[in-house]
Amino acid sequence: MAGDVRRKIWARLQEGVLNYDEEIVVNASRDVLNYNLDIYECIMKGLLPGIEEVGELYERGDYFIAEMLMCSDALYAGLNVLLPHIKREQYVEKRQIVIGVVAGDIHDIGKNIIKMMFDAAGFKVHDLGCDVPLDKFVDEQLRTDAEIVCLSAMMTTTMNSMSEIIKRIKEKSPGVKVMVGGAPVNRNLANQWGADSYADNAHNAIKYALETITILKSLDKQSRID
Question: Which of 11, 41, 70, 112 is the most buried (most CB within 10 A)?
């Protein structure tokens, strides 16, 4: 019975975001709290699939900017109910991420989805926005001492700049991990450019980030012992 309730609430969260119905999302989010469900799990299996489907509809031309904005409002309505109740210490302890869309590219839907999910997972996110110059990624990483930098591109004409950004970041901060993503990007290109990871969706991006933080923590602990 508990599993059925959980899945029904996930479906309502997804449906509410997809149909830009804030009332459905808010009521389902309140049920998450009333039934004492795992909040992070409900975000990842309810809200996230909804906004990912919205992104796909937008890319196909079935949804337009107006629908995207209303869907985002519905998503945030749910997050506003849920996020204050997340026990963030269960996930990440003030670990930092720099994220942005590379210069010449203003397509930030995917970046915004991943940014929201990093927020939900408890990361401190430094969002540079879109059309970000190369040096800004480097400077922001140095300023914040972020452990991970996420680069996004949605155009083949802009994605190749990732190679130089990664090179410059690694020159300044060799221990920093760089993740790349976006429609034209693939794992082979990520490897060629020297990226540490390629993420094809928000779930995999967060999974990699959490794994990376665990590794970095163990390295920090080992260095103190040595």
Answer: 112
